[in-house]
């Protein structure tokens, strides 16, 4: 008995509800489901990165110091990291359609709140709410796309998913810069709302409901509480260490909470009957290696989208629109390269593409280690393009290398954990790079300040010239003198900040080069081999 075209179009491992949707919508259902999933992912990731270019304006609007403003990025990432690991539980107990719908509603509330926020606490809270809504969307989107494509086309499917993942960060800086310069920073929160509203009815049509044979599991409240306590305390330790003092009682207490909650979380997840994260997955060497690489890649992806706009605006002196436009070619190149990388991952061993991609991203930031206020913009565009092509090579193959060794029953867990690890890497990456940048800037400013003494001829000549200029405008002698000192202080801080950025870029490069070691343990088989 021959099967109908609609039945033949279904992947052999598709669930009952997905098979029913194939019968309803035909072979094109996989594209309907893919578009819906990517639209939701695109909306959430657009908001995840578009705020980075607005951070200087938000700081000015509310008088935020840098260590508080970084919560606009890390608060979002931390919240999405916590909710991301709930994807498997939510899908099993409520189905993809309801889970997608609820997540996007939470994200919508956060977006509106950010657009109307009147205090710094409220705008940070809106980012946390946005992150909580977006966390479940990404692994769920990855899972549905993975399930509606057959085995020999899953690399291509991950490439399509990757386009949605990186296209939003690609256009976000340019779009955000234009919105800020033309209207207000508040519009970066409101921009994704139309996309959310479009995705909701599509999800009701094309996302599968709860599977009839799905098991019901209890919610791991203790695991969520311990994970939330760990992330909150460790981020507070890192973000407040510079201001409070690394040897202060406050940092000691928050550091102890971070360590104890991390140990408690691991202990609980191993012993509980229904763990939020099935730690047994990490016993698989290929999955463990992929998780390590994913953590570093997440740190590099989100850390670079935080650092580069900040560098272009504070060191290069670009306005938000120009900073965003400068990053646009690299993002668009990455989106296009994802399609090629997806097809290559269906023919080449995953380890090969991943190692080449890691090396390219490392080289990109190795080149940035010499960047300063006088670096040609064209050169930096090419450096960013090189790094983004590297990430495009990594993502599709990394997803395939991580999920391929897992049985079908663990795909939801594996997908959720993989996205969790990437977000965790992004959360730590942004926070650690912020701390590193502050400490290296402080180090270089202090070192440069020590050289400024009466015998420093260049500084003396500069102060004399500034003194003459101010005196020519009618300024009194004390005013011109202190004005010269203030100008010299700004020059020292600007140079120290540039050197701090260069040190940070160098460490990012070294981290990716070191990541080649765990990449050696990834799957090296041909995609078509059993």
Explain briefly what this protein structure is.
It is built from 21 helices and no strands.
The appropriate CATH architecture of the largest domain is Up-down Bundle
- How many distinct domains? 3
Shape: globular
CATH topology call of the largest domain? Growth Hormone, Chain: A
Task: Describe the overall structure.
The protein has 530 residues and is an all-alpha fold. The chain has 3 domains: 16-220 and 274-443 and 498-519, MFS general substrate transporter like domains (Growth Hormone, Chain: A); 221-273; 444-497. It has helices at residues 5-8, 16-25, 29-50, 55-62, 66-69, 71-84, 87-116, 120-148, 154-182, 187-190, 193-206, 221-244, 249-271, 285-314, 320-344, 350-368, 377-403, 411-450, 457-472, 477-514, 516-519. The model is unreliable at 1-8 (pLDDT under 50).
Question: What attributes characterize this protein structure?
Answer:
Growth Hormone, Chain: A; 530 residues; 0% strand; 21 helices; single chain; mainly alpha; 78% helix; disordered N terminus
Strand and helix map with partners:
Blueprint: H1 5-8, H2 16-25, H3 29-50, H4 55-62, H5 66-69, H6 71-84, H7 87-116, H8 120-148, H9 154-182, H10 187-190, H11 193-206, H12 221-244, H13 249-271, H14 285-314, H15 320-344, H16 350-368, H17 377-403, H18 411-450, H19 457-472, H20 477-514, H21 516-519
Helix pairs in contact: 3-8, 3-9, 3-11, 6-8, 6-12, 6-18, 7-8, 7-11, 8-9, 8-18, 9-15, 9-17, 12-13, 12-18, 14-15, 14-17, 14-18, 14-20, 15-17, 16-17, 16-20, 18-20, 19-20
């Amino acid at each position: 008995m021959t099967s109908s075209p609609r039945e033949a179009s279904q992947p052999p491992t598709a669930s009952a509800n997905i098979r029913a949707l194939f019968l309803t919508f035909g072979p094109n259902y996989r594209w309907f489901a893919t578009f819906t999933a990517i639209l939701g992912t695109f909306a959430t990731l657009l908001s995840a990165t578009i705020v980075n270019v607005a951070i200087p304006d938000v700081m000015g609007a509310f008088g935020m110091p840098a260590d508080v403003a970084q919560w606009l990025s890390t608060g979002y990432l931390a919240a999405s990291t916590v909710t991301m690991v709930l994807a498997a539980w939510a899908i099993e107990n409520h189905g993809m359609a309801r889970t997608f719908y609820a997540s996007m509603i939470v994200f919508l509330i956060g977006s509106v709140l950010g657009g109307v926020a009147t205090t710094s606490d409220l705008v940070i809270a809106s980012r946390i709410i946005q992150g909580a809504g977006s966390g479940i969307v990404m692994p769920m989107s990855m899972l549905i796309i993975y399930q509606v494509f057959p085995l020999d086309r899953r690399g291509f499917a991950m490439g399509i998913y990757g386009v949605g993942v990186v296209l939003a960060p690609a256009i976000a800086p340019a779009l955000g810069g234009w919105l800020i310069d033309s209207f207000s920073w508040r519009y970066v929160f409101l921009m994704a709302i139309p996309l959310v509203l479009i995705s909701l009815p599509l999800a009701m049509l094309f996302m599968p409901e709860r599977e009839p044979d799905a098991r019901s599991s209890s919610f791991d409240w203790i695991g969520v509480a311990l994970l939330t306590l760990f992330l909150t305390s460790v981020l507070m330790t890192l973000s407040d260490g510079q201001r409070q003092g690394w040897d202060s009682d406050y940092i000691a207490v928050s550091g102890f909470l971070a360590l104890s909650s991390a140990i408690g979380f691991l202990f609980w997840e191993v012993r509980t009957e229904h763990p939020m994260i099935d730690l047994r997955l990490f016993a698989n060497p290929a999955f463990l290696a992929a998780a390590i690489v994913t953590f570093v890649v997440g740190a590099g992806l989100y850390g670079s989208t935080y650092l580069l706009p900040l560098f272009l605006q504070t060191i290069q002196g670009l306005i938000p629109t120009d900073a965003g436009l400068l990053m646009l070619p690299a993002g668009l190149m990455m989106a296009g390269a994802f399609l090629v990388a997806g097809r290559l991952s269906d023919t080449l061993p995953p380890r090969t593409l991943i190692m080449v991609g890691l090396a390219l991203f490392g080289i990109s930031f190795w080149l940035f280690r010499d960047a300063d206020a006088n670096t040609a913009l064209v050169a930096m565009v090419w450096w960013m393009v090189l790094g983004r092509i590297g990430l495009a090579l990594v993502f599709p193959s990394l997803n395939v290398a991580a999920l391929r060794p897992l049985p079908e029953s663990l795909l939801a867990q594996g997908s959720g954990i993989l996205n969790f690890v990437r977000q965790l890497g992004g959360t730590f990456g942004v926070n650690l790079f912020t701390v590193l940048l502050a400490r290296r800037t402080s180090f270089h400013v202090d070192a440069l300040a020590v050289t400024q003494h009466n015998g420093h001829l260049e500084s003396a000549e500069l102060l004399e010239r500034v003194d003459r200029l101010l005196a020519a405008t009618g300024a009194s002698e004390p005013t011109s003198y202190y004005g010269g000192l203030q100008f010299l202080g700004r020059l020292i801080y600007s140079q120290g900040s540039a050197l701090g950025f260069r040190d940070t870029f160098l460490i990012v490069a070294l981290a990716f080069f070191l990541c080649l070691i765990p990449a050696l343990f990834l799957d090296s088989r041909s995609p078509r081999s059993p």
